[in-house]
């Protein structure tokens, strides 16, 4: 039986993971980390009655679980994953907001501790494929902008997926700005900038998680789009990560690297 600690169990993604783990007979949630607890009863969150609930890292013993799943907030993810690795947990991280430097530090720490794990900005297959196709397309269409659209409760912008897409595209094209002379009569109108790739973040009720990558060429354009209409779309990736995490030899970044 693989024991799972779920950080962020009361959140939208946390509750999806609770359902997923219930359907996986070889896995059990034995502990949960929350920010605030509305109830001390694990059953209120769909967790097994014997699951231990914690509200701070310092309370969590090293043997509460084998695997640490994190769907919390950008402000806490680095500390959480650092704590997980220092205490022998294999991390599966969906929370966005880790910087490149933080990812490198955590990768180094995982190596020191001999622990494998995964950090994935997106566990949905449509997004993983979008990123792969976008990187391929950018070799032929270097002029590109990204529009991501999310629910109104999303705390960070741009999305981790949009930033990961821009990084993959930047690997295969020369950094340049399309239409560099265009001025902004309204500040921010051209969006955020990653090595000349413009990123636009839309936040609206009714949306879940969506991304479009727009490529423009001479007299033609290519648009690649993915839609997560429901958060259950991320669970196939989390399931794969759970099934593989015990055999991973290092901390991987990107679901595509363990498929
Ligand atoms: N990789 C992927 O495929 C996906 C990643 N995400 C990412 O996952 C993260 C969570 O998303 P989502 O579930 O929608 O967000 P929610 O706001 O619904 O859930 C976050 C949960 O984390 C809790 N929390 C906040 N701080 C801490 C902390 N220090 N320790 C433990 N728990 C904490 C919050 O508690 P409280 O409300 O009490 O503060 C809340 O219950 C985001 O970064 C999002 O971008 C989302 C979807 C897919
Ligand atoms: O906050 C979300 O909802 C999502 N966050 C991730 C991101 O920032 O890319 C993954 C997906 O877009 C949903």
TrEMBL record:
Positions contributing to NADP(+) binding: 38
EC number: 1.17.1.8
Binding site for (S)-2,3,4,5-tetrahydrodipicolinate: 151, 160-161
InterPro entries recorded: DapB_C, DapB_N, DapB_N_CS, DHDPR_bac, NAD(P)-bd_dom_sf
Pathway: Amino-acid biosynthesis; L-lysine biosynthesis via DAP pathway; (S)-tetrahydrodipicolinate from L-aspartate: step 4/4
Catalytic residues identified in the record: 150, 154
Binding-site residues, NAD(+): 8-13, 94-96, 120-123
UniProt domain Dihydrodipicolinate reductase N-terminal: residue ranges: 3-123
UniProt-annotated location(s): Cytoplasm
Gene3D superfamilies per the UniProt record, alphabetical: Dihydrodipicolinate Reductase, domain 2, NAD(P)-binding Rossmann-like Domain
Keyword annotations: Amino-acid biosynthesis, Cytoplasm, Diaminopimelate biosynthesis, Lysine biosynthesis, NAD, NADP, Oxidoreductase
Catalytic activity reported: (S)-2,3,4,5-tetrahydrodipicolinate + NADP(+) + H2O = (2S,4S)-4-hydroxy-2,3,4,5-tetrahydrodipicolinate + NADPH + H(+); (S)-2,3,4,5-tetrahydrodipicolinate + NAD(+) + H2O = (2S,4S)-4-hydroxy-2,3,4,5-tetrahydrodipicolinate + NADH + H(+)
UniProt KW Glycoprotein keyword: no
Transport is among the record's keywords: no
Residue intervals of the Dihydrodipicolinate reductase C-terminal domain: 127-259
Secretion signal span: none
Job description of the protein: Catalyzes the conversion of 4-hydroxy-tetrahydrodipicolinate (HTPA) to tetrahydrodipicolinate.
Subunit organization: Homotetramer.
NCBIfam families per record: dapB
Family: Belongs to the DapB family.
This protein's name: 4-hydroxy-tetrahydrodipicolinate reductase
Organism the protein comes from: Lactobacillus nasalidis
């Amino acid at each position: 039986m693989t024991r799972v600690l779920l950080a962020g169990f009361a959140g939208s993604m946390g509750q999806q993971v609770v359902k997923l783990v219930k359907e996986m007979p070889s896995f059990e949630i034995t502990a949960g980390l929350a920010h605030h607890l509305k109830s001390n009863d694990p059953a209120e969150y769909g967790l097994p009655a014997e699951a231990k609930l914690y509200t701070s890292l310092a309370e969590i013993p090293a043997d509460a679980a084998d695997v640490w799943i994190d769907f919390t907030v950008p402000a806490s993810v680095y500390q959480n994953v650092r704590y997980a690795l220092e205490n022998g947990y294999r991390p599966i991280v969906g929370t966005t907001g880790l910087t490149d430097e933080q990812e490198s530090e955590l990768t180094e720490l995982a190596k020191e501790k001999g622990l494998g794990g995964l950090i994935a900005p997106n566990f949905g297959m449509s997004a993983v494929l979008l990123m792969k196709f976008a990187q391929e397309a950018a070799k032929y269409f270097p002029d590109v902008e990204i529009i991501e659209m999310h629910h109104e409760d999303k705390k960070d912008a741009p999305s981790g997926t949009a930033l990961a897409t821009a990084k993959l595209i930047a690997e295969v094209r020369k950094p340049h700005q399309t239409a560099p002379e265009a001025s902004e009569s309204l500040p921010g109108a051209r969006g955020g900038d990653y090595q000349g790739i413009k990123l636009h973040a839309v936040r609206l009720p009714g949306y879940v998680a969506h991304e479009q990558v727009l490529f423009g060429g001479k007299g033609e354009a290519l648009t690649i789009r993915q839609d997560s209409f429901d958060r259950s779309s991320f669970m196939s990736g989390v399931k794969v990560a759970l099934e593989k995490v015990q055999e991973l030899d290092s901390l991987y970044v990107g679901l595509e690297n363990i498929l």
